[in-house]
Design brief:
Layout: H1 6-14, E1 22-26, H2 32-41, E2 46-51, H3 54-62, E3 69-73, E4 88-93, H4 104-116, E5 118-126, E6 133-136
Parallel strand pairs: 1-2, 1-4, 2-3, 4-5
Antiparallel strand pairs: 5-6
Length: 145
């Protein structure tokens, strides 16, 4: 795997990843962070990278051969789980226009979709902090393990 930029490496290290997690990356671009996350969650985990750009998703797919990593063309405000698809434990979004505060209507739609696509207790990690801000997606706590 190619080395991550210093910024993406800091993002990766800030995420509370564990083996077996299901992670959704919004705005995955060519997939560098998604590939690194897939390594961290291991073969028992899963990562879905989504981007509104078909060219970005095609580039990501060309550079990935991990069985626990898939990509999809969709924007944040239009994301939905496919039939039979399990919800995600964690969402990460770096430089996603629908979540940057400039488009409140898109952000509201995206947050609604993310709540529907995640398990209770899931969080969104977004690049509004140093390096990330954590936003709880649900009001109820995560179930006890």
């Amino acid at each position: 795997m190619a080395a991550l930029s210093a910024r993406l490496a800091a993002v990766l290290d800030a995420l509370p990843l564990r083996p077996g997690m299901r992670v959704l990356e919004l705005g995955c671009g060519p997939g560098a962070l998604a590939r690194a996350i897939a390594e961290r969650v291991g073969p028992e985990g899963f990562v879905l990278g989504v981007d509104r750009s078909m060219m970005a998703v095609q580039a990501a797919e060309r550079q990935s051969d991990a069985g626990n990593l898939k990509f999809r063309v969709v924007n944040a405000e239009g994301f939905r789980l496919k039939a039979g698809e399990e919800p995600f434990d964690l969402v990460v979004a770096i430089r996603v226009g629908a979540l940057d505060g400039r488009h409140p209507e898109l952000e509201a739609a995206a947050m609604e979709r993310l709540r529907a696509a995640t398990v209770p207790g899931a969080s969104l990690f977004i690049d509004r902090g140093d390096p990330l801000e954590q936003i709880a997606l649900h009001s109820e706590p995560a179930p006890a393990a």
